[in-house]
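User: Fold both of these, please.

Assistant: Here is the first one.
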Amino acid sequence: MIITKSIARFSRNTVDCLQHTRLLKDLGVDVFFEEQGIHSIQPGAEFYITIYGSVAQSESENISANVRWGKAQSAKEGRVAFHYETFLGYRKGADGGPEIVPEEAETVRLIYSRFLAGDSYTVIARTLEREGIPSPCGKEKWSET
């Protein structure tokens, strides 16, 4: 038996939910959806799984659409989320917007100049380590990513 909180946690897509519960049922595995109180092996369970699955899929699509809309609005208004603590070359300015950190800007220029010169990410990371330049998180070792 697989115990899951709800149909929405099991799958965000009605078709996938039904396919997976059918496959598991064929293998003799019951899926119990706690929130709905449904055992997938019970008679009529597929009907309820379809109904609840459709609701979960619709909710997921609505949430995604709202998030996309919110991000688009923020971008339109010039509001972009920065994680300043790990964002190399910038800090939060007095106006709340990004402000260049001159010392870190040199590192950013070095990274871009090496990239434009054809260096790989690995070579750039090793160059920064050799130069003793700490990563945005303050670590000695740089990640190629």
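And the second sequence with its predicted structure:
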Amino acid sequence: MIPNGQSAVIERTAPDLSALQEQIQQLQAQVDALRAQSPENRLSMVVFSGDLDRVLAAFVIASGAAASGMEVSMFFTFWGLTALRQKRESRGKTLFQKLMGWMTPVGSRGLGVSKMNFGGIGAKMLRTMMRQQGVPQLEEMAQMARDLGVRIVACQMSMDVMGIHKDELIDGIEVGGVATFLGDATKSKATLFI
């Protein structure tokens, strides 16, 4: 049996305890809501450039992020798509799409550098200097990124405009639209445009 004095104290503190528990539940709900809104350990990037040095930088960053445990997605659009092409196909394309296909490089070996390309000499020099320093080539970096689970997405709209068919791309490339990119980017800690 509880003595009268203690019983009165318990009766006075019971509402305070109930209010405190309610505040704790409200705070927990706020913390849960904030947690749901916070970005995931993820990196998203748009690869717009078709320059060797820029595409290389994109794959270096993607591989580094994936190796550190981040989920990574790369969204290749317009000129960036040239790095993903493995062959040139003319069948079923408009005249402009055929011309675009012939004027743009096929694959990473055909990419020039963004500065001082000089008809492809700049790209050859860069590749030679990378080899001399033991730096992996773009093709090795791209494979490393894929081996680390980097998601590589080709922009469907850009493919349609430029007349690039899925069978012209290297194997294992996902095709998606801007909603695919935004779905990843809205959950990412960092979003890059290269």
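The chain has a mean pLDDT of 90.
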